[in-house]
User: Fold these one by one.
Assistant:
Number 1:
Amino acid sequence: MYVTEQTTTAPGTTPDTTSRPVRVNAWNGWDPLRHVIVGRAEGTVVQAPEHAVRRDYPDDGFPLGTHGPMPSDMVAEAEEQLDDFADLLRRRGIRVDRPTPVDFTRQVSTPEWTHDSMFGCMPPRDLLLTVGNEVLEATMSYRSRWHEYLCYRPVLQSLFEADEHMRWEAAPKPRLTDASYHTGFWDTYNDLSTEEQLARVRDYDLVLTEAEPLFDAADVARFGKDLFVQLSFVTNRSGYQWLKRHFPDHRVHAVTSTNTHPLHIDATWVPLRPGLVLHCGERLADAELMEFFRRNDWEIVEAVQPASWEHPPKLSFCSPWLAGNMLNLDENTLCIEEKEVRLAEQLSSYGFEIVPVPFRAVGPFGGGLHCATVDIERDGTLQDYFPRRYGRY
């Protein structure tokens, strides 16, 4: 079933969210959403190359080794879609906060390194993780994103002042010296065969070393008592171990991908509601993880191929499976990019109401609807959805 707008107020008015007390509370990705951060495209740059990542767009004016602001027409279109999405959420009674961009073109440094650019603040999901009443700032493993937390400090400060029970935490800021990277990784990895790349992924022999804990928040999937942490290009074993120790009251699981370029779990293993999880057809979870879910009576849905995907004309580093990067408004309502009609029809068959959202222009700025948001408050409490243990889980 498709829906366009559902509000509890008179047509043409916006629900008043300011009278409701601010509360940080989110244990999963499907309880009813009450408060969210929506990112901004303003100021985003194609970041300068570094050990962790390289951008190479020779047909679009940014060949390898160059960097600079995203084209103004792309920024304007993405900002319009982000603003419209924020307004849609507000009309549904959801409180919305936005980050404060800084000058991402500036050279940044620590006493141990200097980097020629930053990146942006469109994908807050990469940096911030809400677990219960805690908001945790992730480490980030790109030098270009080391200072990105500054964009969210005004929002976090206001949350801290408004909710006396909020826990505001930050993982140890990493040094990001050359010791944190296999510095020649990108010189050889993309020339390997698919089988060789997958072997490297299975062995977690990727760009990051174990010199220090590193993780992106978007590599963590929250299922109540259980947190699943994907080892990827931006999350190492040490980062997983840090998260496991930081959340001692949770069961924290390390997950390896069958994708040759693992980067963030929220388009590959997507919780929809209790008992139902979506996975990407090209990035199947390992057999032991799938068996663990099935033994706990979860149905695993293989997403249809993204039939309508067309990459934005330039400067996009997203894969077609960004289609699965969706936002739950509650366990019965999903926001999905408007052109992903086949996926919407597939999930409608499971009883979901689908809110189609124009969002294609946002992709080059760091992801989809889930990437562009961080849930601050959802109704609900901590639940155990996996009472039966299996294997290493």
Number 2:
Amino acid sequence: MLDMPYGELKLGQQRVSHGRTITETDVVNFCMLTGNWLELHANAEFAKKTLYGQRLVQGGLIFVIVNALLGFEHSLIEAFYGVDKLRFIKPTFINDTLYAHTEIIGLRDKGEQHGVATLLLRGVNQRDETVLSCEFSLLVRRIPLQDKQVHTLREAT
């Protein structure tokens, strides 16, 4: 969703991503990857007796999926620069569909070749509820990498 060089970005620019439905497979794979087998995520019978009456999707998984929905342009993004004020506002459940809503809230120069763009990033579900909110910063190039440079980077990863 950041598809312009740093110098072309403007405060207040907003975007909404395509949707992504969270599946049972996502939750189980994240349990396997992280070792987070907390019963609230992994045990349906246990989760029935909790505040929400069903399993919750792990906050870490929600953060990773929502920021990935931004759709990074490889020729422009140099690096993830940080996250601040991360909050999980509402629970996310298996089969919820999430969208990334962004607004550019900060721009600052970072040397001659880059700038830091800070986005208000919100994860919003199909019920139009904000489930996640944070300030998400990226190091953005002023001049995109050329096609040959991008292909070299993709081959290296």
Number 3:
Amino acid sequence: MKKFCKVLLVLTVLTQTALMAKGIEGYAIISGKVDFENPFGEVKLQQVVDGALETVATSSTNEKGEFAFMYPVDEAAFYHLEIAPRRYSHMLRFYLESGVELKVTIQEDGYVLAGEDLGHNELVTDWNKSVEKMLDINRVGSVKTYKEFFPLVKNEMIDEAQDFKNRINTGDEQFDALMKLSVQTDLEEQSFSFFRFPRTMHASPEEYPDFYQQWEKDVKFTDADLLKLWNGKSYMDNYFMTYYLFLENPKPVSSKPLSGMIPSFDDPALLDVFLRDYFSTRRFKGGQFEREIAIARPYMTSEESKALIVELEKKYFTEAGQPGFKFEYEDVEGNMVSFDSFKGKVVYLDIWATWCGPCIKQIPSLKKLEEELHGEDIVFLSVSIDALKDKQKWKNFVKEKDLKGVQLMADKAWESGLVKNYEIKGIPRFMIFDKQGNIVTTDAMRPSQEGLKEQLVELLKK
């Protein structure tokens, strides 16, 4: 059979039966019925991406509550169904691979699975039902407390999880390994996430079960397949929250910075995703972001993480009163000069290029201003964004024009961190920073404009 082009198809109820009867290579089909009133009238199909769920399709239900999806599956993986709004007592997780055809009847208290080719989903369903016992307590509005949850995990779920892992022997090595990892992750993640939900009563440290101590490891996160699980990301985050804030002799986050978390990872992909989530979901005050991003930057190597850093630096290094963007560029002698080296002095920054006519027109006024404020605690800093191939042209220009102050050349022209951080679209661009290196303005007056000297003099008095 000719393979269909890779597009998502949300099946109508009229066409689903015919398509399912044929069986379509490279696709999985899920159809079914919501067997109770669903005021939102839709079902979402969600895929696991970097350890969390992302909606990839939505199917409206007909008057009978029926829905259907046909989805291209290049690689077997876990997918989930979600009824809007989310019903936390349901665990609608399925393992989709080419040729799988599932019929799912979703009821108030669970679901019934049928179909012509279930793949491994009978086994998945068995474990889903076990997880629902924990999800029933770990949901918004639950009135159950540690008096129900701790015994459930200690006396039932730990043994149930081990027995279930012993049952996993389908002959499909990829599935078996992922399913075993999922079972242990579900068990621990739900135990950690228990602390995130509001409760009417709370256990004292001496009442915490021993299994929490047994799950703490010096090196905890070693398997990148965690990113193929719906709760892989929350598992990592909730682990640190639990051991930092709730257990006996907790390790407060304030006393154990990010550098204390990083050794828990033995897989770079996991660490990259964890750090991306860490910086995306937290608010930083003062110089906290600056300190922690310096620790994390060497480990945030994916394109997604690099893009996030750029956006965060725009947020934390653009507004008045915030620290200026940290850069280090080469001077005309080939020495590396950092922005931080000017602490204790006011900085008047000029972003320019040798090919920029308006930039060159400002040079006489800039030289005059430098002469008038000579000897004061101010640095006139010029950063060229000429292309690297024009480095010698820039050096010659600096010498021929006898440019004063500190002359640097950015490392990647318009793609340099300085340009991206301040979203510079045109030059010349002038900025002012106070003696602490904090932003006064990122759109300062030009040297030729009246009032600039007075502004700088007032700043020097502070």
